[in-house]
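anyone seen this seq b4? input:
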Amino acid sequence: MKSINSIILASLLILCLSSPTYSQEPSSSISHNKETIWLLIDTKKLVLEVKQGEKTLTTYSNISIGRNGSGFKRKRGDDTTPLGTYHIAWINRKSRYHLFFGFNYPSKENARQAYDKKLIGVYHYRQISQAHRNHQIPPQNTPLGGLIGIHGLGRGDKRIHEMMNWTHGCIALTNEQINNLDGFIHKNTLVVIK
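predicted toks r here
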């Protein structure tokens, strides 16, 4: 029994997404008004809210975040969920995690902080900044990591999801929750992680 649980846990702890299938289509910036739907993720309460302006449309509780909590993501593999403001940059409907809504991580702010802390050099800083200026998905293979987003469990064990934070930095919901969330999400949806 213990070895089965170890296998299940190991399968849940693999990277959020192995190889994304997305296009580098430019995304237009959305206007944020009282009609705009956006997501608020509270990493302390482990809650994801779908908002329309200031109104909460629906709430998903008992979400999972990175194994090392949330904060400033210093490097690839640190298992930290990055705080900040992002947009949905791509949607992978063939993810092994059922559905995957990829963020435009690292953001310009992430890159600036990392550059200031000497975690990335000028080359990666410029790469990330240029991608954002051109409304493109920033490079996903810098020292800051990538492939951060919201996903389901796929074939993962829901019991483990309910017991612990298990991702490598993503936000995880159950398959049922992410199917429901799918009705609200589109490319460019604003996501605020606090």
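The chain is about 25% helix and 25% strand. The radius of gyration is 16 Å. kinda curious what u guys think
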